[in-house]
Amino acid sequence: MKDWISLFWSYESEIPVGRGFSHFGMAHLLWLGGLLAVSVLLLRLTAKQGTSFGDKLARFLGWSLLVMELYRDLVLTLIGHYGIYELPLHLCSLAGFLCTLHMLFHREWMEQVLYTLCLPGAMAALLFPDWVAYPAIHFMTIHGFVFHGAVVLYICLALARREIVPSLRELWKPVVFLCVIVPPIYIFNKILHTNYLFINVPSPGSPLVLLEQWFGNPGYLVAYAVVIFLVMIGMDVGYAGWRKIRGCNHPPLNRY
User: What pTM was estimated for this model as a whole?
Assistant: First the structure.
């Protein structure tokens, strides 16, 4: 008890080796189970309570994601560890901002980006978190799980409310999004030796490690790009198949 309290506000470099949690260990599974239970409960309440509750939940999640990102940055600044390695340039940090913007402005281009890129990205982060060096109860661990869980819940809520309606014909939108953000971030990584979007090096413990082992580096980049493209196609095809099975022919609830 005293151990995790004393380490609660520590940065990764200050955490003794062996004090973190393991991928798919008991602590990890408890976090995932808790997030799943809360998400299912809130989605069921939305279906039961109707539009008003859904609107309030969407606004709460949208603003909460922005506040959580600012909170993380503030805490890291206060403990003296906010710098070029902690900028909000990973896909999931960008996803948080996109959720907030989608909640406010409902731009159609955001729908495909959120669904085909941010949703699988946030789910992958929950399954293969890169914050395992921290104890299971730590401000970075809590932020990591709650933030990514909120991204997933926001997108699932928007899907359930038909505010996001994926379409394979709109696949060009996330492709353009990647073409806009990846080159400058890649250059930024090269100049300052960072690893945003895991472009330079795969996230430890994730399946991306296999790509580097199989294709080497920079061959890893080509394989990574192919995997992302296949995931985007799979997300859209999967959604279309799900709608066909469910017999969903209704139009979107809200098209802005």
Answer: 0.94
